[in-house]
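Re: Re: ligand-bound prediction request (bumping)

Still looking for help on this. To restate: I need the protein modeled with alpha-D-glucopyranose bound, output as structure tokens. Inputs repeated here so nobody has to scroll up.
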Amino acid sequence: MALEDKVVYQIYPKSFCDADGDGWGDIQGVISKLDYLQKLGINCIWFNPMTVSPQKDNGYDVADYRKFDPRYGTMEDFEQLSEECHKRGISIMFDMVFNHTSTAHEWFQKALAGDEKYKNYYYFRKGKGPGVPPNNWQSKFGGPAWEYVPQFDEWYLHLFDVSQADLNWTNPEVRQECADIVNFWRSKGVHGFRFDVINEIGKWSFEDDPNNFDGRQFYTDGPMEHAYLKELNEKSFGQDPDHITVGEMSSTTIEKCAGYAGRNSHELDMVFSFHHLKVDYKNQKKWELQPFDFMELKRLLTEWQIGMQKADAWNALFWNCHDQPRSVSRFGDDKKYRKESAKMLATAIQMLRGTPYIYMGEEIGMPNADFTSLDQYRDVESINAFHIMEQEGKSEEEIYHILQERSRDNARTPMPWDDSANAGFTTGTPWIQAADHYKTINVKNDLSDPDGIFAYYQKLIQMRKTMPVVQTGLFQPLLEDHPSIFAYERVLGNEKMIVLNNFYGKEAGCDIDADGMHVFLSNYADTEAQNHMVLRPYESVILYNR
Ligand code: GLC
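Reply:
Sorry for the wait, this slipped through. Here it is.
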């Protein structure tokens, strides 16, 4: 599939639009907003999982891979969605959660009943002694990564929640099941697939983590990973010339990703990597705050651009998703310069080489949720983290502050359509409260502003869809040592584009070669192309020589 002109919009279905008033977003709600998405200009939608699930991890605990949770709708609703998307030139990407299943899944239930075939779908292991798990790995959501099953006197592995049991990919039957699931959705007309934490499937050793941590060095990018991906490709989506696939890759390297997403690798089309979204982690720890390290952010984005380009491999470009706090609050200024910084961030990421992903609400500059009490939170990771930090002796005030900065629920509050009750998301009681700022920051308001963020996103998206230099131009960094501007150029033949982004609320000067260049797009009205540019707070400029 040609990736160059794709722009993906991510919908967190539970929070997007609720058509039937039960407080949950649903497929009919999405259908009612397709004109909005068409107007934005995107050409693919990634949906977070909508299949049957106990919702311990909001659908990433899958209990049936082939059936929609009725709260989202039915297969008929999906067929209607698919048809309506098709009419608008929008393709559909589904989320495949193959590292683990819910413990409510039939396979796990059969395993628990003692069926050896299904026990071998998972990792059951003897403990080191009475009450002692097989190793010291910690779950990513807190606590040990093993759960004891008394009837077997064995433990099962769960890298995430205790209700998410890890699948045993060394078992060929498991691999075949996963390919069959992809093929099932292909038969329903789905061409896009996002593979959840897919570089964690190849566990190769169960020894203790010497750092007393999550054991990631024994399952990330395992020696069989490439083989597993090639097999999945060959048996399923690789048979579809129109496929578009992305793998979520945690804690990985450019070298590995170049292999996963190389043009001729026959594995995946592109990868999400997360290093650039850890530059505000103190000591590499998610729940420890520090201001974001701008030089490190630049260095990482640049290194990945160059590394993947050299290897002829493809990046997914993103600031936001359902697992990350909102970028405008994180890297911008969500108060004084919300509009400017939201547009700047969009420019900085979307003009890079790769495929941009826009997370719902980003296109109107939605900030963090700013919840102030634990009962507003729904995310299992955040709630566990709250209790762990409490045990560590942190004050409540400090913990709330950390959650306000880091919780995944910052991204999961209802899409604010207007300023009516519950942000126009539902007529019922929303499963998670709308963030207070919906009264001013909402789609209706932004669309009525000719200088709105949505209107700016439309322009960036059009550029991606129509300009070869944006699609395939060579990436080259500029002003690498500049302390507040992230700058680069894209070059294709004698076409050239320079992209300058001021990441701070203060003016910043720089010298560039602007001869023959003019301003193509900026988030300020009166920017001019000059050899010495002074960028205003959060100013972005795209210069072009055509
Ligand atoms: C991925 C998902 C996240 C989920 C986790 C476990 O990181 O994006 O939401 O909790 O995998 O499935």
